[in-house]
Amino acid sequence: MSGNEEFAREWLRKAGNDLITARQTLLLPDGPTDTVCFHAQQAVEKSLKGLLTYHGISFQKIHNLLVLLDLLLDSINDLVALREQFALLNGYSVEARYPGDYVEPTRNEAQEAVKVAEKVLEIAWEKMR
Q1: What pTM was estimated for this model as a whole?
Q2: 105-114: string of b/e by CB count within 10 Å (b at 16+)?
Q3: Which domains does the chain have, with CATH numbers?
Q4: Using N-to-C axis directions, what is the helix angle for 3-27 and 33-54, rounded to 10°?
Q5: Could you report the per-residue pLDDT of 73-91, keeping only the tens digit for each?
Q6: What single-letter DSSP state applies at residue 128?
Q7: What radius of gyration, in Å, describes the C-alpha atoms of the chain?
Q8: What is the DSSP string of 58-113?
């Protein structure tokens, strides 16, 4: 296994850790949904960065899932169907972490964010086998 492949897998392991945090927080009766959504977004971001690393595609230090997805489109078409969900998750990367005009996600939105993250991480692991 090359260094790039191992580093790509490290990205996916980190994504898995974010998913664990999101799932565990959802188990709490009054778990903060902003935390769940943030970690779901992070899991998707790290999954995409893992795929980019695996394919040897350079990327900037950004959090925008749509930009990362666009860099991958020539390599992985399976993720195109999730573009709309990625746009929603983008709002959880920064805005969810700070007070202000941000609206707390509903429990259903948090659950959906986790489902998207699970799907992306699953696709990422499949593409690296």
Answers
A1: 0.94
A2: beeebbbbbb
A3: 3-127 (1.20.120.330)
A4: 170
A5: 876 778 888 999 999 999 8
A6: T
A7: 14
A8: ---S---HHHHHHHHTTT--TTGGGHHHHHHHHTTTTGGGS-SSPPPPPHHHHHHH
